[in-house]
Amino acid sequence: MKDLQIRRQPRSMFPELSELFTGFPAWAGRWPVVEANLIRLEDQLEDGHYVVRAELPGIDPAKDVDVTVHDGQLTIKAERTESTAAKGRSEFSYGSFVRSVTLPAGADEDDIKASYNNGILTVSVAVTEPAAPPEKHIKVQAAS
């Protein structure tokens, strides 16, 4: 039989932040302070559109999501309320989430579509190639 070598990573003098919550109730590991107002999202340019996908599971998009655009900023706001009850015990969680992103140059704020499917909100903004501004010549004045 070969000797098995166990390789251990050296432990830092400072524990991982998540380790500080070991032994606390389950809600402590959810990082309510850090992640309470954060929406995870990805954005990319696809086929002439700026597409933003946001993870928003467990919400009703018709009443819990608000997507706005103003001065080149796309803002996604959502509210979530969950409750569970089992064997005389109940738990609930709720929170507001908000994220804003700056639209790319050439984004058409009048051509925006949003859809929700399987916990993912997708916002698509049409983007046209911005016209290059004309070259501007500045007259240089000589000192007298």
Outline the fold blueprint.
Blueprint: H1 32-35, E1 41-46, E2 49-55, H2 61-64, E3 65-70, E4 73-86, E5 89-102, E6 107-117, E7 120-127
Antiparallel strand pairs: 1-2, 2-7, 3-4, 4-5, 6-7
What brief labels describe this structure?
Immunoglobulin-like; 7 strands; 46% strand; 2 helices; three-stranded antiparallel beta sheet; mainly beta
Describe this protein's structure.
This is Alpha-crystallin. It holds the Pfam family HSP20. Belongs to the small heat shock protein (HSP20) family. InterPro entries: A-crystallin/Hsp20_dom, HSP20-like_chaperone, Small_HSP. With 144 residues, the protein is mainly beta. The chain has a domain of 93 residues: Sandwich (Immunoglobulin-like), CATH 2.60.40.790. It has 2 helices and 7 strands; from the N terminus they run H-E-E-H-E-E-E-E-E. The protein has a 4-stranded antiparallel sheet with strand order 1-2-7-6, with no helix packed on it. Strands 3-4-5 form a 3-stranded antiparallel sheet. A hairpin with a 2-residue loop joins strand 6 and strand 7. The chain is elongated, with a radius of gyration of 25 Å. 9% of the residues are buried. About 21% of the residues have low confidence.
Percentage of residues in helical conformation: under 10%
Shape: elongated
- Strand content is over 45%
Q: What is the number of E strands? A: 7
InterPro entries: A-crystallin/Hsp20_dom, HSP20-like_chaperone, Small_HSP
Protein name: Alpha-crystallin
Pfam families: HSP20
Family: Belongs to the small heat shock protein (HSP20) family.
